[in-house]
Amino acid sequence: MSALPIDFALAWDSLPQMAEGLVTTLLITVLVLVLGLPLSVLVTLARMSRSRILSWPAAAFVVFFRGAPLLILLYLVYYGFGQIEALRDGPLWVIFGSAFACAVIGLTLNHVAYMVEVVRGSLNAVPAGLVEASAALGLTPRETFTYIRLPLAMRYGLAAYQNEVVMFTKGTAVVSVITVIDLTAVANELFEETYDPFTPMLTAAAFYWCLVNAIRLGFGALENHLNRHQRREQAVKPTTPAGAAAAAAEPPAGAPVAPLRRMIGSDRRPVPVKAAAPALSTATPKEHAL
Amino acid sequence: MSALQTETGPQPVAAPRPIAVEMTGVEKYYGKFKALSGIDLTVRKGEKIVICGPSGSGKSTLIRTINRLEPHDGGTIVVNGITLDGSPTSVQDVRLECGMVFQQFNLFPHLTILENCMLAPRLTRKLSKTQAEALALKYLERVHIGAQTHKYPSQLSGGQQQRVAIARALCMEPPIMLFDEPTSALDPEMIKEVLQVMEDLAEDGMTMICVTHEMGFARRVANRCVFMDQGEIVEEARAEEFFEAPKSDRLKAFLAQILH
Questions:
Q1: pTM, to two decimals
Q2: What rounded mean pLDDT belongs to chain A?
Q3: Partner residue opposite B119 with nearest CB, options A147, A152, A268
């Protein structure tokens, strides 16, 4: 065998199988994320609610599922529920009898519990003044939430969400313990068939790496889109002395607006001629003294 | 209307006009701290009231109780005939009567200038997109921002942002405007452009209640000035008297502090 621990022929041959595993991994990831996002917003709202009937169960949910070890949670959902005869004979067995569905359920519970804190932090980061301004305009609390708080919270929470998604995607590997054949399970099978410990694992790792980076790029694009109001700001704002001249092309900040005062106002408020001079207003009397 | 005209208001406005805001014995507590105590204030339609006083005197709290951003704990507040009793409908109705401009502008950063102005008319007044856009452009034009409607708030200067905030409030066409230190967060060279817009508004007959430290503005525009200290209205007078012949020692001391 060569010095490299990787058997490229084996890696190449395993690609179709790996791709199948990847599809399962992707499917689980996407399903859980799609289920998890609205659920976590709902649980967060319950958690932040003033009503204890809502906030206490939500808080208990978070405490329990954030603390529960994921692996054990999956065992319990898959093997534990299978022990309940009523469930085995009932209509819900379609779900609890399937390892895939159990994986999605277990992961969703775990994911939502983490996400509640992300969503809560993001909602709390929205400046109170904006919520007040919205209320003062006559928007109802629900409208304020839909049009102001949620869109802004999405922007604030995006980085934390990306972290959670990346961690979670890699974390889906645990589903192999309840017989779901995901990317990691495929690699494991190949290892057991070939006794090559490196090639299948490294191939799977490469797949995960690509997946995570695809996610990263996706988030980057999303962030760019959502934060377009800031990006353009950066194009305009960081003006050093040289930039001041460039800024003059824009409607200058300090320039007086077109005079709209009536003639009668002309004797009001004698404005110092050099009002816009860089010196502070305290300098004006000195100028007069001179 | 006729009943109101028989009343003789204390202020020498030609004929007493209908009451826009009436506060009677308003109290407000933050925990045990009494932020407002026994506030009696009547503002008639078309009046311009300036409220001033040292920091922490309750000016902002007072103006924020008028549209119930701060609920009051005692007394009554009636805005254009609507009694603020804390019911969601009364709160909503009063907020449609009052436009508000904040010290920190509070423009929605993720919306363009135009969208900032269109949001509330579309949602609350149920205007169509074209109607709301026409309305927004009309008021943005009026505050001289007409050319920059597709920018985002962060791309404008402070003075421009505050003028947008004024236009945004005007788009709801409220009969009363509340200004909570509208120029305090601005660089000195931008204060004038905002005050000009406010003065223009005043000349159009808008009912205005302004918390401000701009004493020049108060002299030029205000019908009445109200001086607050420690949660109370200490003195209330016509602008000339207020500045030329203050009665209370606290106001004298305050004016000596700020008029340099």
A1: 0.79
A2: 82
A3: A147
